[in-house]
From TrEMBL:
Protein's UniProt name: NAD(P)/FAD-dependent oxidoreductase
Membrane-crossing residue ranges in chain numbering: none
Species whose genome carries this gene: Massilia hydrophila
Keywords annotated in UniProt: FAD, Flavoprotein
InterPro entries (alphabetical): BaiN-like, BaiN-like_dom_sf, FAD/NAD-bd_sf, RsdA/BaiN/AoA(So)-like_dom, RsdA/BaiN/AoA(So)_Rossmann
Coiled coil (UniProt feature): none
Residues in RsdA/BaiN/AoA(So)-like Rossmann fold-like domain copies: 6-403
Cofactors required: FAD
Domain RsdA/BaiN/AoA(So)-like insert: 189-350
Keyword 4Fe-4S annotated: no
Classification via SUPFAM superfamilies: FAD/NAD(P)-binding domain, HI0933 insert domain-like
Length: 405
């Protein structure tokens, strides 16, 4: 005999636990299924173990999607302040780190404990670890074939996340369920991921691993308007040189906007116009170029940049033609480089793409053509910037579905 529930939530991560708790506290009989042996691994490892659980400034402009307006409704009905209210209710100490990012003072385990307690308050039933098999539409809802026995329910909420970090249990189940019910899926790809470079143009930079500095980074057409404008990324954050390419918050942010085969543009000294500065100091500064640049840039980076652009680091500034100094200024303020690829799902913090938002109600997250079937969290084609935005989407979309099921 199949077990009866009002709601089955597949995936006990951030979005799934939020949705289960909200629905159960409304009096629904909810079961939460997950194949993992450890609960909510992504929350546990997030924010370096302290979970950057929201961002005070979260709004639709901080998310990527084929429909940038889709997330507006859910985000406005469950805000960062709402989640903070829950954090305060559970007496979890937190602090603001950088640009509105809120972290636990102690451990991300506290957020997992809080969500577990909220589920317990509504008497959520658990099946974990549990292999989830086929899902069928029935006359009254759905039947889920699952380890431990079949489940009959009126609503199914799919909260299985994206493809990032397969070694802790990421799978494509959410996309497979969407396709089974004839829903479009925007091709998934890794986001918030280090970018890789190789070939001769990168040789001068390969030895710079470990160097970090604040930069401006952008990609896409700076003159783009309308929808194309929303696809253009521009950030001021820290950049880190790695053995295989570039990383750090600046690169993770821009990676979500980067299209393979196109360049990213770096401004290594965003508060200076280098060409103007170099030309203006030509007659007063007697130093070699390498030493001049090392006033503002790490010395090894200055040397790498000079060599990569055909300048000898020991050439004297005073001997340089203005046109050459303009070229050098451009190489520093507008360094365009084309990544060869990315570190992929193994290192990506999120997955871009997912269930096409045109298939879902922005109020409830329910599939328009399959009443009772919901998709929430990272499985949906809504992806946040680095900085607590992805959890805010998980909470907000989980809450929206939890209120509707
Ligand atoms: P989530 O991945 O949390 O949960 C999905 C659940 O579904 C998992 O428990 C999984 O086991 C289960 N599942 C998958 N396939 C299944 C199957 N076939 N059968 C049964 N169950 C299945 N974001 C942020 O805002 N602040 C931060 O600090 C960080 N930090 C961070 C660090 C790292 C290293 C990563 C990889 C990611 C982050 N993120 C983040 C992103 C954030 O973790 C992510 O966006 C959310 O966890 C997404 O929540 P979901 O509930 O949608 O998926």
């Amino acid at each position: 005999m199949a077990k009866q529930y009002d709601v089955a939530v597949i995936g006990a991560g951030a979005a799934g636990m939020m949705c289960a708790a909200v629905a159960a506290q409304r009096g629904k009989r909810v079961v939460l299924l997950d194949h993992a042996t450890r609960l909510a691994e992504k929350i546990r490892i997030s924010g370096g173990g302290r979970c950057n659980f929201t961002n005070l400034n979260a709004g639709p402009a901080n998310f990527l999607s084929q429909n940038p307006h889709f997330c507006r409704s859910a985000l406005s009905r469950y805000t960062p302040q709402d989640f903070l209210g829950l954090v305060k209710k559970h007496r979890i100490a937190y602090h603001e780190k950088h640009k509105g990012q809120l972290f636990c003072d102690d451990s991300s385990e506290q957020i997992i404990g809080m969500l577990r307690a909220e589920c317990a308050a509504g008497d959520v039933a658990w099946r974990m670890p549990c292999k989830v098999g086929d899902i069928e539409k029935t006359a009254t809802g759905f039947r889920i074939v699952a380890e431990g026995g079949d489940i009959d329910c009126a609503s199914v909420v799919v909260a299985t996340g994206g493809l990032s970090i397969p070694k802790i249990g990421a799978t494509d189940l959410g996309y497979r369920i969407a396709r089974q019910f004839d829903l479009q899926v925007v091709e998934p790809r890794p986001g918030l991921v280090p970018l890789t470079f190789d070939g001769p143009s990168w040789e001068a930079f390969a030895p710079l691993a470990g160097i970090a500095l604040e930069v401006e980074v952008s990609t896409g057409d700076p003159k783009a308007k309308g929808k194309a404008r929303a696809q253009r990324g521009h950030f001021r954050e820290d950049l880190l040189f790695t053995h295989r390419g570039l990383s750090g918050p600046a690169i993770l942010q821009i990676s979500s906007y980067w299209q393979p085969g196109t360049p990213i543009v770096l401004d290594l000294l965003p508060d200076m116009d280098m060409a103007e500065e170099l030309i203006a100091s030509k007659n007063t500064v007697k130093k070699q170029l390498g030493n001049v640049l090392a006033q503002w840039l790490p010395a090894r980076l200055a040397e790498g940049l000079l060599r990569a652009n055909g300048f000898a680091p020991d050439a004297r500034l005073a001997d340089m033609a203005d046109a050459k100094l303009r070229k050098l200024g451009d190489a520093i303020n507008r360094w365009g480089i084309t990544p060869t690829g990315s570190e992929g799902y193994k290192k990506a913090e999120v997955t871009l793409g997912g269930v096409d938002t045109r298939e879902l109600s922005q109020q409830s997250m329910m599939a328009n053509k399959v009443p009772g079937l919901y998709f929430i969290g990272e499985t949906v084609d809504v992806t946040g910037w680095l900085g607590g935005y992805n959890f805010q989407w998980a909470w907000a979309s989980g809450y929206a579905a939890g209120q509707s099921v």
